[in-house]
Amino acid sequence: MTGYPMEKFMTDWRFWPTTVIHPDDQTAAAEQAKHLALGQHSEVEYRLVRADGKIIWVRDSARVQPEGPSSKIVYGLVSDITQRKQVELEREWLTKELRDINQTLDERVRARTAELQAIFDAVGEGILVTSPTGVIEYINPAMEKLTGYSAAEAIGQMPRIWKSERQNSAFYAQMWQVIQSGHTWRGELVNRRKDGSLYDVLLTITPIPGPDGKPVGFVGVQNDITPFKEMNRLKNEFISMATHELRTPLTSILGFSEILITRQLSEERKIRYLTFINQQADALRAILDDLLDLSRMEAGEGFEVVEEVVDLKKIVEEVIFGFQENQPAHRYQIVGSASWPQITGDPAKLAQLFKNLLSNATKYSPNGGEIVLQGSIEQEYNLFHLTLTDQGVGMTPEQVTQVFDRFYRADASNTAIGGTGLGMTISRLIVERHGGKIWVESEYGIGTTVHLLLPLLNRPIYILIIEDDHSLRELQQRILRAENFIVLGVEDGITGLKLASACQPNLILLDLALPGMTGFEVLEHLQNDYLTKDIPVIITSAIDTAVEIEKAIQKGATDYLVKPYGMGDLTVRVNRALIKPPARSQVKTQNR
């Protein structure tokens, strides 16, 4: 077995443990010798170095037999197990290799899964993954936002949770049949959000094939096409409106011009017909101007605000004079403050604004009546409040919510009332470009009031502080007043919301821990109110967790200031928040 002569072992008892046993295994052999010396049987595997240098594996099985009170005989059986050991080693090597490969594959799968998860989380389309039976196993953040259901609420449910009942059972049966057969299904349907509102989607469902080709799950992708559907609706309404509004004056122009060309008429009748043609051409021009103004204003191109100090009352009086001359059935009045304050603005655009508003008030008061324009100065806040009230047909609450939408007409069914449905849209753009606000109050069958809120000339910067800690609020007020800001302070959210609407501050400092209404609730109200949604808000709070800060920013806060903070930091943050794009684009200053 070893290739050494027996004499080597007989003459030198150290030959076996120091020369024949492999150097790396001599410790294991020595441990075996200790056990044997204690009279314990032992079996160990180690390597031997043969005389020819070849290394073999052996199993050394030793048994101890006592011989008398102080002597022992050790019987040893050394077996060559090289072949078996090689097989075992190869098996261990293969096992290790397979384990490494499996670990590598697991890591790759985890990495790929994480990559796909990141992709799914980042895409704008709603994605859901279901089991073969349709149970939801995953939805991405876009799906949460689209449906209103969180992942925790949706997982484990069936997609029927957002069923709208707008599609019948046959529709879903056909869909299920297609995807169960391993094919992709595509189509449009109407779904229902958690809050009950409906939305249009383009849905694609793709089966995930298993080893046998049968689906082991499904991936659905929802594209929200509600805006496109709405755009298509607006387009159809506009085409219908334009067909009527453009064809009617064109027909009159063509008819009367043909009469002028083909017939002999008296001078008086010629002038009458030419006057009518001129009026119809002017109506066409107004329609085209509305369309061009809207596209320019929304694109921010070609809409110049020539900023100068204007006499608003003089502009209004000139516009009203034109209406009074042409609309004898209506009585136009200006009431309130005898003298109006000066404001900064564009005379031409402001004249267009009041033409639009008076035109609407006149058209939707077909039986005549009073149209009253009232102006009042809110000196405390440096604002000018105008109201235009008619005694017309009025609007329902639903109509009021849509009055500033493009191409919307409160009574589109009444074709006798002309218009493109763009007047109020353009009016809001003009007011907002002048740093103001416009809103409508109306009662069906009673009449409508349009409110305008415009900043006075050289209006200072107003800052509203909503903070329940009196000492801190007073300190903030002193610091900011030293920076020449007008600073208002309240201790609760309800009062703060009322003051924000009335004052129209340039910035709000908002504490999160408030009595009655939390800062987050106040922020949500501010964001949902047209009068306050554009006011930048700095959150001030002692809570400094990343989750809370991220939540505040997501809800619309401009900045987040952690208490305690230095007053220098406060002024830096305030000035930074006040530096924002102006409400008006392409503003030019002109001195006269």
In words, what does this structure look like?
With 592 residues, this protein is α/β, with parallel strands linked by helices. The chain folds into 5 domains: 6-80, 2-Layer Sandwich (Beta-Lactamase), CATH 3.30.450.20; 123-224, 2-Layer Sandwich (Beta-Lactamase); 229-299, Helix Hairpins (Orthogonal Bundle), CATH 1.10.287; 305-455, Heat Shock Protein 90 (2-Layer Sandwich); 462-578, Rossmann fold. 44% of the residues lie in helices and 25% in strands. It is built from 18 helices and 21 strands. The chain has a 5-stranded antiparallel sheet, with helices on both faces. Strand 1 and strand 2 (55-67) form a beta hairpin. Helix 10 (312-326) packs parallel to helix 11 (347-363). It is elongated and about 150 Å long.
Draw up the topology in text.
Elements: H1 6-11, H2 15-20, H3 26-37, E1 42-49, E2 55-67, E3 71-80, H4 82-122, E4 126-130, E5 136-139, H5 141-147, H6 151-154, H7 169-180, E6 185-192, E7 198-209, E8 215-224, H8 226-262, H9 267-299, E9 305-310, H10 312-326, E10 330-336, E11 343-345, H11 347-363, E12 369-378, E13 383-389, H12 397-402, H13 423-433, E14 437-443, E15 447-455, E16 462-466, H14 470-481, E17 486-490, H15 493-503, E18 507-511, H16 519-528, E19 537-541, H17 546-554, E20 559-562, H18 567-578, E21 587-589
Helix pairs in contact: 8-9, 9-13, 10-11, 11-13, 15-16
